[in-house]
Write a structure and sequence with these properties.
This is DNA topoisomerase. The chain has about 1000 residues and is an alpha+beta fold. The protein has 27 helices and 38 strands. The strands form eleven sheets. It has a seven-stranded mixed sheet with strand order 2-3-4-1-7-10-11, sandwiched between helices.
């Protein structure tokens, strides 16, 4: 009997599909990698299982970072498995090739990326002909889900889309992937080759979308740095009337906006003029003109992903990545929201009944803060057709994010916040507009002694008459304070005391406020997402911004990853909610501008590429034409870098305040180096210079100043060895071979070199950190280490008798003096969270503890079952012994030690029989406790049961709940819960 193979994107989605199909298609039997019944086989990927690569004859193995092999533009792309999920890929392709499988159903996420994941798997499963993989050749259909409720899944299977319907999306998905490969590989290799011309290896990553996004942040920072603040003054007066007092701000009624972007009607540019006006109006009488008019404020539109990410960043400080993960969990796991990776803020016109059903579900839910508002909307008949909500022309493949008819329970605090944001917005768009009465009061004061005989003051009041949709948010007039154009709180939210017709007012006070113009604000994730959405054009109007979305940078689904990528590559830093570009980012922008590679430095051009991908999706542009444009763009980028023959790149470079340490001349920055420019700052100088980017990390101007002034800086993080390993080090300026100049060197804390030089340590000016646990000496800071006074040569102890040394930086984690004091006094430090494993390159947390038995400092991890901390050792370099090896060599040394420590093999633990509940999760075979724990974790990860906002919390499904006895448990509780189920 022929069967359909359903391929989902994640195991959890495959399970949801099985649950939804069982009532209509029969029970499924469970196998290791799939579910099967008489009609369907349901399996899943785990995200991307296949990636594209250049064919073997085009793949550059050696010298790939040189211009000689660029550009790389293969005529077609081969496929290769993602190494860590290779076994999963083999299992899926084996199912696809089964003779009884006559049809494939793509059940991956409904979007460009989900389409690509499936298409690459399907092609990889096909035969190889002429050195190129061919499609499998079996019919393909598409399951397109906007919601993950069982009813929505069953309806999706009743309305499967044809392969022809999905051809445009498939072409756009492949084109996006190949375009990113071409620009990323060639651009990164070309810029790296350019930056590494003077020796060393300076990895310079660029991307079709990430680099124009970075240019937005760099340009904003340049505006801030170049901004020259101007003083201005405002006059604020208090006026007395029979009913009380009100305030007003002076303004010029004749003001017209001109070329001065900082000019405003209320700003006065001369202090003397402002004070003259304030003095002239004080204690003077005036008259009032008042106008009151009703105004309305409609609810904002429904959320798409970008607007949700912006709102969550502004309200809760959530990163775009966190918001996406939470929304995805609410969609997949809780079935509480519709598909989140959408760029639409509208619903289909036939969705009115669904909206009414959603309100009914909410009105009967246990969500006490939402149910009454849903019930009220149903009673008043608010849920009705509206072009602001239902518009087919503004819905492509996905509609706005809204709640489903399945209100959730058991959400984490972060999930609840996102759910509430979406649900309140969904209800609000159906509610009536909020109604206000806005009063504008103009107070005029005669000033015959001044050139302008009458002065005008404006007061504004805004009174909420009918809350409308604001009732859902619990807001009233006092919380709705307006803001002016500069983002400062205004007075529109204030109530104004009444003035009788013809009443004369008295000026009780007139205050002159000295203020300064402010530079534009740095980007936060919320404002950067908005800028990406409009390709850098600052558009506040919602309708106009929606019209520009098709030319944005990236897509709603990819923007969070782009921002995170820039942070991971150290092009940006996150300080609070601000995103700040690093010196590495400025250097890249200087290079791209100097090479005139506009394609990678102008957001609007890259936004145009995204627009063309949308045209491919709609069948209005051929894939071949788009890829030809990308290939031409790639060739131009490489050619510009190859052919650039000048000594330096033009740019806005700094001059250091600290003089040259060799001749006292002026030290200036150029593209590659800081170099002496002679006494006049315009000659060749004495020859002193040092690279701006040692080890692939670019100095800031402040760091360069410190290095020249103190001849030492660090320890600094972010360096990479030639093998790509991250490391931390100090840098010093030491005498060059000729003895006349200074040169830059890494200092890895090789204290033996100091010992070899015969230099005696002198601790006379230092306070000891504590007593050494290894000997009778006191511990002091010495070079890059904390050492016992008996471990280094001193005048009192010329020959060291101890080995107690601890590095100030261990596996990239700085060890502060305060932590060293704790170690010496209490035997352990606090938990430190910035250690980076040499083996996995992943961060980990641990304490440093004194291990008396081993006679050295070791790691102690968080307590396991029984309360005993797990311990681990680190190599000699980490502990403070000689550290002259590169991080890569240190890692090899650690691996050798670990292998030696494992020579004595432990006997396997006796197996124990799992309980029926545990057997349903890990199988019935007897297992050791450690093996049971491993299988339990495999199940948790395979089914995506970790809370995305707190990975240490496990959210149980039906099977796991029977084992744990609760819906949610902490990861450290697992071992205790497991014990009761092993007999």
């Amino acid at each position: 009997m022929s069967k359909s193979l359903v391929i989902a994107e994640k195991p959890s989605v495959a399970q949801d599909i099985v649950r939804a199909l069982t009532p209509v298609a029969g029970a499924f039997s469970k196998h290791d990698e799939y579910f099967e019944n008489e009609r369907y086989i349901v399996t899943s990927a785990v995200g991307h299982l296949v990636e594209i690569q250049a064919p073997e004859e085009f793949d550059v193995k050696r010298g790939k970072w040189s211009f000689a092999n660029l550009p790389v533009i293969p005529p077609h792309f081969d496929l290769k498995p993602v190494e860590k999920t290779k076994s999963r890929l083999n299992a899926v392709t084996k199912l696809a090739r089964r003779p009884d499988v006559t049809e494939l159903i793509n059940a991956c996420d409904a979007g460009r990326e989900g389409e690509l994941i499936f298409r690459l798997i399907e092609q990889y499963a096909g035969p190889v002909k002429g050195g190129k993989r061919q499609p499998l050749g079996k019919p393909v259909k598409r399951l397109w889900l906007q919601s993950m409720t069982p009813q929505a899944i069953r309806e999706g299977f009743e309305n499967l889309r044809s392969d022809a319907q999905m051809r445009g999306l498939a072409d756009a998905a492949r084109s996006r992937s190949e375009a990113d490969w071409l620009v990323g590989i060639n651009g990164t290799r070309a810029m790296t080759a350019f930056n590494s011309r003077d020796g060393g290896f300076f990895l310079t990553t660029v991307g079709r979308v990430q680099t124009p996004t970075l240019s937005l942040v760099v340009e904003r920072e340049e505006q801030i740095r170049k901004f020259v603040s101007r003083d201005y003054w405002e006059i604020h007066a208090d006026f007395a009337v029979q009913a009380g007092q009100y305030s007003g701000r002076w303004f010029d009624p004749a003001f017209k906006k001109g070329e001065d972007e900082h000019a405003r009607a209320e700003r006065i540019w001369e202090e003397q003029h402002a004070r003259a006006i304030a003095q002239a109006v004080l204690h003077q009488s005036g008259t009032v003109q008042e106008q009151a008019k009703p105004t309305t404020q409609a609810s904002p539109l429904l959320f798409d992903l970008t607007s949700l990410q912006r709102e969550a960043n502004g309200k809760f400080g959530f990163s775009a990545k966190t918001t996406l993960a939470l929304a995805q969990a609410l969609y997949e796991r809780h079935k509480a929201l519709t598909y989140p990776r959408t760029d639409s803020r509208y619903l289909p016109q036939d969705y009115l009944n669904v909206a009414q059903d959603t309100f009914r579900a909410l009105s009967h839910s246990r969500l006490g803060h939402l149910a009454p508002h849903a019930a009220h909307a149903l009673e008043r008949g608010y849920i009705k057709p509206s072009k602001r909500i239902f518009d087919d022309s503004k819905v492509s493949d996905h509609f706005a994010i809204i709640p489903t008819t399945q209100p959730p329970s058991g959400l984490s605090d972060a999930e609840q916040k996102i759910y509430d944001l979406v649900t309140r917005r969904f209800m609000a768009v159906f509610y009536p507009s909020a109604e206000y009465l806005v009063t504008t009061r103009i107070t005029t004061i005669p000033t015959p002694s001044l050139p302008t005989p009458v002065q005008h003051f404006k007061s504004e009041g805004k009174v909420l008459v009918k809350p409308g949709w604001l009732a859902i948010y619990g807001k009233d007039a006092d919380s709705e304070i307006a803001t002016d154009k500069d983002g400062k709180a205004g007075d529109k939210g204030k109530s104004l005391v009444p003035v009788q017709p013809g009443e004369t007012v008295q000026t009780d006070a007139a205050e002159v406020k000295a203020l300064k113009t402010r530079p534009p604000a740095r980007y936060s994730e919320a404002t950067l997402l908005g800028a990406m959405e409009s390709a850098g054009k600052q558009v506040e109007d919602e309708e106009l911004r929606a019209a520009m979305q098709e030319k944005g940078l990236g897509t709603p689904a990819t923007r969070a990853a782009i921002i995170e990528g820039l942070l991971n590559e150290k092009y940006m830093l996150r300080e609070g909610r601000e995103l700040i570009p690093t010196p590495k980012a400025f250097q890249l922008m200087t290079l791209l501008r100097g090479l005139q590679v506009q394609e990678l430095s102008r957001p609007e051009l890259t936004g145009d590429w995204e627009y063309k991908l949308n045209l491919i999706e709609k069948g209005k542009l051929s894939r071949e034409a788009f890829m030809a444009d990308i290939a031409a763009m790639t060739e131009r980028i490489v050619r510009k870098a190859k052919e650039y023959d000048r000594d330096t790149i033009p740019g806005d470079y700094a001059t250091l305040a600290t003089p040259c340490p060799c001749c006292g001349g002026v030290v200036k920055e150029n593209y590659r180096r800081y170099a002496c420019a002679g006494q006049d700052g315009a000659s060749e100088g004495c020859g002193f210079s040092f690279t701006k980017s040692p080890g692939g990390r670019t100095f800031s101007v402040e760091e360069a100043e410190q290095l020249v002034r103190q001849r030492r800086i660090g320890p600094l993080e972010g360096f990479r060895s030639k093998a790509g390993w991250p490391f931390t080090a100090e840098l010093t300026l030491v005498p060059a071979e000729d003895g006349k100049l200074l040169k830059l060197e890494f200092d890895f804390g090789d204290d033996k070199r100091q010992e070899g030089d015969g230099e005696l340590a002198d601790f006379s000016g230092q306070q000891p950190l504590g007593k050494s646990p290894a000997d009778e000496g006191m511990v002091y800071e010495w070079g890059n280490s904390y050492v016992s006074e008996l471990a280094v040569p001193t005048a009192q102890n010329p020959k060291p008798t101890s080995t107690f040394k601890v590095a100030k930086v261990i596996l990239q984690q700085p060890i502060e003096p305060e932590q060293m004091r704790k170690l010496l006094a209490e035997g352990q430090t606090d938990v430190l969270d910035k250690f980076i494993s040499n083996r996995t390159r992943r961060p980990f947390k641990a304490r440093l503890v004194w291990d008396a038995q081993a006679g050295k400092v070791n790691f102690a991890f968080e307590p396991r079952e029984g309360g005993k901390p797990a311990r681990g050792r680190f190599g000699a370099a980490a502990a403070g012994k000689t550290a002259t090896k590169t991080p890569a060599k240190a890692a090899s040394k650690t691996t050798v030690k670990a292998a030696a420590a494992k020579k004595t093999a432990r006997k396997p633990a006796a197996g124990k029989k799992p309980s029926a509940a545990l057997a349903a999760v890990i199988g019935e075979a007897p297992v050791a406790r450690t093996e049971a724990m491993k299988k339990l974790w495999d199940y948790i990860k395979a089914n995506n049961l970790q809370d995305p906002s707190n990975k240490r919390t496990i959210v149980a499904d039906d099977k796991l709940r029977a084992v744990l006895g609760a819906d949610r448990v902490g990861m450290f509780e697992l071992a205790g819960k497991l014990g009761a189920h092993l007999q």
